[in-house]
Amino acid sequence: MTKASKNNKQNRKPENTQRRSAQILFAAFAIILILSMVLSAVSNY
């Protein structure tokens, strides 16, 4: 069981890094979008 789990983790490492980079890009895009919305709301007031 332990050896199989270790092998699975090693095989899934590249996929996890790709998913993490995609999540970071999505988070950065969401933060920029929220910041632009907040700035537009502040400029309106």
Characterize the structure shown:
The protein is mainly alpha-helical and 45 residues long. It has one helix and no strands. The N and C termini lie far apart (61 Å). Helix content is 96%, strand content 0%. The model has no long low-confidence stretch (mean pLDDT 83). The longest helix is centred in the middle third of the chain and has 43 residues, at 2-44. It has one domain.
Topology diagram in text:
Blueprint: H1 2-44
Task: Identify the notable features of this structure and list them briefly.
45 residues, mainly alpha, 1 helix, 96% helix
User: In the residues, how many domains can be counted?
Assistant: 1
Q: How many helices in DSSP terms?
A: 1
Strand content: under 5%
Low-confidence stretches: none
- Please give the alpha-carbon distance between the first and last residues: 61 Å
Largest sheet: none
Q: Work out the number of β strands.
A: 0
Find the structural class using helix and strand composition: mainly alpha
Q: Can you tell me the overall shape?
A: rod-shaped
- Provide the residue-averaged pLDDT: 83
Fraction of helical residues: over 70%
Radius of gyration equals: 19 Å
| Sequence of secondary-structure elements | H
How would you summarize what this structure contains?
It is built from one helix and no strands. The chain is an all-alpha fold and 45 residues long.
